[in-house]
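To the wet lab folks,

You asked to see what we're planning to order before we commit. Fair enough. Below is the target structure as tokens, and below that is the sequence we designed to fit it. If anything looks off to you, flag it before the synthesis order goes out.
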């Protein structure tokens, strides 16, 4: 009898895991369960489409290792499967003397992680991005762009071609042990599995608790607001233009990204959301809000970072302030050059002491593997994360 594996979540991490398992194991039956009517409707389909190089992440962290290896796997997959991508390069710009030290720290991290990157002067910056300004910058030619939803759909077709199943509209309701098996209940039907893999993104902690696991963290949602440049101003950005990030937070700051399908995207900021799917500023959910406010880690986070949080909130509410942040990178941008785009939600794990988890978190239990924290660069790293999970299943 083949090994029966159920994967919860039809985003890029869940699909990459199913793909890796189908490639690694011959005697296996894989079923992906997705609660929505389509795949990749949340983080995987609402991100900025950046292929990260690995420059930001602590050497020897799961993020650093999986991003570098995952990037290579992603590029190989896109070439084989004719998924469009482009290595357009990135500049990380220091706009003040205070940011020079952070730029140097990024350079050292990048070199330690094997990233091709170099310091460039403001004159060299002007040659790469003529409209960007800064005292100094890092040039990262390995960074690129892709449509991650297109990657997801291609992964899904490969999974199904191997004879495995993807079921949508399957919201998880119950998980219980039945001897050596797991009985997994959804609103439509029940499934039996030998192994459950939790790739539920913003709901990963809830799925873990449903499985009887008590993770030592909680997912909190951050909404990221995006704009696009008007057609007449798209020429201001040739590739990817980023600021030097705040080293105390796992966010990269408001930046500009040329998109693989055309146009230039600006954002995101990072505002604590009032629901796990709060894509509009007015969205909220009483259950999600109570869960957020009753978690002691939320209040400790607020005490530590209230100034940054207030700044992000003000920028979310003011297009003028959003434009002002972009003007630090591209002075020619004006408020009227920005057109609203659909927001995204970042699933970010938070420890009870208020620390934001700065690495991927994967927790194992008998018959289960739970991916409890997989924010950026999880899309870039997804195929390597899938291989790592497949290796644990096949061990």
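Sequence we intend to order:
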């Amino acid at each position: 009898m083949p090994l029966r594996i159920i994967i919860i979540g039809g985003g890029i991490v869940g699909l990459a895991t199913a793909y890796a398992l189908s490639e690694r194991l011959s005697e296996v039956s894989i079923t992906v369960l997705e609660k929505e009517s389509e795949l990749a409707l949340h983080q995987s389909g609402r991100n900025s489409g950046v292929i990260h190089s690995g420059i930001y992440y602590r050497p020897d962290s799961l993020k650093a290792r999986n991003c570098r290896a995952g990037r290579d796997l992603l590029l190989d997959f896109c070439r084989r499967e004719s998924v469009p991508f482009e290595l357009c390069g990135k500049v990380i710009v220091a706009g003040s003397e205070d940011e020079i030290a952070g730029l140097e720290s990024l350079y050292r991290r990048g070199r330690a992680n094997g990233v091709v990157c170099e310091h460039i002067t403001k004159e060299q910056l002007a040659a790469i991005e003529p409209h960007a300004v800064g005292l100094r910058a890092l040039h990262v030619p390995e960074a690129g762009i892709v449509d991650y939803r297109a990657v997801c759909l291609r992964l899904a077709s490969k999974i199904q071609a191997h004879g495995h199943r993807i079921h949508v509209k399957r919201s998880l309701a119950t998980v219980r042990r039945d001897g050596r098996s797991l009985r997994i209940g959804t609103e439509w039907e029940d499934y039996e599995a030998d192994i459950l893999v939790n790739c539920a993104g913003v709901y990963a902690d809830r799925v873990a608790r449903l499985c009887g696991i008590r993770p030592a963290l909680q997912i909190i949602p951050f909404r990221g607001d995006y704009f696009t440049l008007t057609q007449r101003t798209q020429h201001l950005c040739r590739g990817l233009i980023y600021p030097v990030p705040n080293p105390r937070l796992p966010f990269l700051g408001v930046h500009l990204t040329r998109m693989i399908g055309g146009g230039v995207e600006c954002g995101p900021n990072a505002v604590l959301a009032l629901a796990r799917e709060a894509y509009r500023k007015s969205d909220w959910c009483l259950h999600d809000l109570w869960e957020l406010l009753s978690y002691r880690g939320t209040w400790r986070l607020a005490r530590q970072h209230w100034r940054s949080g207030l700044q992000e909130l003000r920028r979310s509410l003011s297009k003028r302030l959003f434009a002002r942040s972009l003007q630090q990178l591209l002075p020619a941008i004006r408020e009227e050059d920005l057109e609203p785009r659909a927001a995204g939600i970042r699933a970010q794990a938070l420890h009870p002491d208020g620390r934001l988890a700065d690495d991927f978190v994967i927790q194992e239990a008998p018959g289960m593997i739970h991916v409890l924290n997989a924010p950026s660069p999880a899309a870039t790293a997804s195929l390597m994360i899938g291989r790592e999970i497949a290796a644990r299943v096949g061990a």
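Structural context that might help your review: The chain is about 35% helix and 25% strand. The mean pLDDT is 96.

Thanks,
Computational group
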